[in-house]
Amino acid sequence: MPTPLVVSDVTKTFTMHLREGVRLAVVEDVNFSLKAGECAVLGGPSGSGKSSILKMLYGNYAADAGQIIIAHHGRLVDIAHATPRTMLAIRRDTIGYVSQFLRAVPRVPAIDVAAEPLLSRGLDVERARQRAADLLARLNLPKRLWHLPPATFSGGEQQRVNIARGFITDHPVLLLDEPTASLDAANRDVVIALINEKKAAGVAMLGIFHDSDVREAVGDTVIDVTGFAPKGKAA
Amino acid sequence: MSDDPLLSVRALSKFYGNRIGCQDVSFDLWPGEVLAIVGESGSGKTTLLNCVSARLRSTSGTVHYRMRSGEMRELFRISEAGRRMLMRTDWGFVHQNPADGLRMSVSAGANVGERLMAVGDRHYGRIRATALDWLGRVEIDADRIDDQPRAFSGGMRQRLQIARNLVTGPRLIFMDEPTGGLDVSVQARLLDLLRGLVADLGLSAIVVTHDLAVARLLSHRIMVMKEGRVVETGLTDRVLDDPQAPYSQLLVSSILQV
After folding, report:
1. What is the per-residue pLDDT across B179-198, written as a single tens digit (0 to 9) for each?
2. Residue B65 in domain
């Protein structure tokens, strides 16, 4: 599938019911598509709706209008109208997400946080943990941390657990929300290498990268989000 | 995940005289899915849970359950005895107050073993071994097996209640505020335990809670209730991160940040 994801005419507005129903238009008429084996970069200043677009693609934010068509299990599914059950299946098998911050679950050790996406797809514990260990080692997370819950880790350590968790599966579409924000140069290079390996494997990626070095190293195309600014809003 | 729902609720209403308990509630629950019902006290969530679990007779509407044979049966068209059997074997019910779900004056081992005997197991050694195994899985030390739950802390009692419910290998668990009344540190341990068990055993669950953090941690889907009606439903993180209904926005914005 050369075009695994197509976004058409997507609009997002927040209606603040607790503030007299104030409507906050975020983006309008969002149109783009992702190609297999390429990494597209969302460009635009902060507040222009880059994160909101990623979150709609992951089903985390509701889209008000438009379509987000993804090739899932050989069928085309509209994420903007998918049932929760379908969205969960899409997340399990088709679309991955590396968020900026780790939402730590109490008591679950780092290695199991990273292995969990494989476990939920039915891989056995030993093999899943081995894959997680390989990735954590590549990302230079000290081995003594692997069996501790990440809640007390530093920002950079948590982010590396998150990256391992996001890159561990072979999802055909991967969303990256500033995956290198709290990393040092050496680990940034590891992430760049991981992204390039995903490209070679034919994964379509969409990312937000504030770090211009990373952006230039991995970005194949730039999607300018300012082009999706709501018409009613002064530019 | 199978394509057929395990539970199918349609237009369910319960009135207490002319007061609304819950009104016109419809949803499906699939195998392996955890549904959280959230809302403030008096929103009808416990009434709904009790109607769906056949502990309370609804005023109108239907609840269909997929039996192990694969057949969909309307709960109140199953005989009283059949429904009791379902409750003892295929279902579990975890009460907010463990004293409502445990027998406080018999041993921990007997509390777990009793459910096995109810499904026909009569081999003492095997029952005790299974009880021991389950106490271990809910992190209760083996040497407490002969103690009565009244000698247990609140968190231990709640874990024992969970073991008692899961020992028969149920497919569906109902939980009413399972972490209510516990200290925060004890809550975290219990939640982690529940999360692990539900995932490992592939259980379906309906969890009533007023605590959105509990819903976020345990559930795949959320149903927000207000004044007996469902005001919003959707993927758990979608409802919590991008709530649409005015009441959902109020609930989410009322969470204290720590």
Report:
1. 887 887 788 888 888 888 88
2. no
pLDDT at A217 over 60: yes
Query: Domain containing B123: what range?
Result: 101-169
Facing B253 at nearest CB: one of A18, A55, A88: A18
Mutate to test the interface with A, among B238, B239, B257 (most CBs of A within 10 A): B238
- Judged by average pLDDT, the poorest of A62-71, A209-218, B249-258 is B249-258
What's the structural domain count of chain B?
Answer: 1
For domain A5-228, give the CATH number: 3.40.50.300
To test the contact with chain A by mutation, choose from B237, B240, B248, B251 the residue with the greatest count of A C-beta atoms within 10 A, namely B237
d(CA B74, CA A24): 46
Would the pTM count as exceeding 0.90? yes
User: CA B235, CA B220: separation in Å to the nearest integer?
Assistant: 6
Among residues A3, A95, A16, the alpha carbon closest in space to that of A55 is found at A95
B190 within a domain of the structure (yes/no):
no
In a domain, residue B138? The reply is yes
- Please report the pLDDT score of residue A233 as a whole number: 53
In a domain, B225, yes or no: no
Provide the angle, in degrees to the nearest 10, between the axes of the packed helices A110-119 and A155-167: 20
- Give the ipTM: 0.93
